Every structure is written in C-alpha cells, then in structure tokens.
Amino acid sequence: LDVIDLFRENDTRDELGLGVIRDAFSDHFFPGTSTIQTRVRYFLFVPWIMKQLEDKQIRSEDAKRRLRQYQGRLRDSLIKGDEETGVIGYRAGINVLRLPSSVYWNGLRRWGILRFQGSEDEYQRSLDGYYARHRRALRTDDGEPVDGIAVANWDAHFPTAPDGLLEETTFELEDEEVEYIVDRIKMMASHSLLSQMIDHG
To answer: Tens digits of per-residue pLDDT, 15-66?
Structure first.
C-alpha cells in the first residue's frame, strides 16, 4: 500500500536543480509565456476585465469575488462565440482552480502591459488606495494626472475593449490588437526568439 501511495504523490521537487535552468532558457527565448497559455487574446481579455473593475471603482474587499464573476462571464461569452479549445474553465465552469488572470499575470507584466509591480492579490488589495490617489491627483486640462501622481496600473496605449466583450466574443484578434501585442513584445523583449519568430512570420 505504501508503494501504491507513492504513485499518488504529485511531487514537484527538482532534485537536480534543472528547473532553474529550464526557466532561464524559457524566459530568455519566450519571455512572458508558459505552456499553459494557449490563446494570445487572453493578454487583452484580462486587462479589459481589470479595467472594468477599476472603472466601476470596485472596492478591494469585493475585488476577488467580482473578478471571478467577470472571468466566469468571459468564459460564457467565449462559449457563446463558438469557442471551445483554449477556453479556461470550459469544463470546470465556476469551480475552475486557475483563472485567466493568474495564468497571464506575469506575462502581462513582462510585456509591459501591466505596470503594477505586485502580485494579483496585492493588486486587489491596492485598489482602494489607487482610487484615493486618483481623486487627489492634480490634473491637466485634458484630465491627465500631473507629474505622475496617480500612476496607472496599465499601459497608456492599451486598446479599447470591444463592445459586448462579456456577452459574446472570440479569440480572433483585431488588426489593432495584433499591432499592439507585437509592439509590446518588440519593446520589452526585442532580442528574444519570440520576437524573431514574429519578424519571420
């Protein structure tokens, strides 16, 4: 029985220390990506959802619950758009363990889309303070914060979310979205193999 129990263990120890080498190569060649990221448009979906949260000024204490709701609606929206393969939570539904935001968070920061430097939990806890800083910030005639008093959490050139995002959508990228993603990779990881592959189709 002890031997059978050994087969049940999901041990992720790296006795030879090869994981560090693997991760270094991975980050050098394909920065911001991992094998569980299968659809590029999630790099846009997640910020669009987070920005909705900020626009509605959802409080820090409610952020986790509301983000799970929004990401559940995104899943339903993709299914309604006839997407199946690559939809996070397609089978698990509301009980999905890893939400898109956790899968794509580090990549968003690596590509310079996300400007907030902490974890997703830290981001959620920071929202109340973020709203307060924005309310106090001096603004220009165009409504922009003066001297970066209220630093945005997201890249200023991020594309606008499409209408009906949480009603029906697909993984198909618009031309503007492709240009934005390519620009981010070129800007933040120009010497990577990922960037070279984009150059050569």
So the answer is: 777 778 888 888 899 999 998 999 999 999 999 999 999 999 999 999 999 9
Kindly indicate the confidence band of residue 95, based on its pLDDT and cuts at 50, 70 and 90.
confident
- Alpha-carbon distance 170 to 81, whole Å? 5
Q: Which residue has the tokens 């899943």?
A: 75
CA–CA separation, 168 and 75 (whole Å): 9
The pair of structure tokens assigned to 130 is: 């973020």
User: CB of 111 within 8 A of CB of 151?
Assistant: no
Pick the residue with more confidence: 9 or 61? Answer: 61
Distance CA 182, CA 192 (A): 12
Q: How far apart are CA 154 and CA 112, in angstroms?
A: 8
In this structure, what token pair is assigned to residue 82?
């006839």
| CA within 13 Å, CB half, 187 | 13
Q: How many CA atoms lie within 13 Å of 158's alpha carbon, on the beta-carbon side?
A: 23
Distances 83 to 24, 94, 120 between C-alpha atoms, Å: 33, 17, 26
Write down the pLDDT at residue 24. 87
Is residue 197 predicted with pLDDT exceeding 90?
Answer: yes
Query: Tokens 């090869």 identify what position?
Result: 18
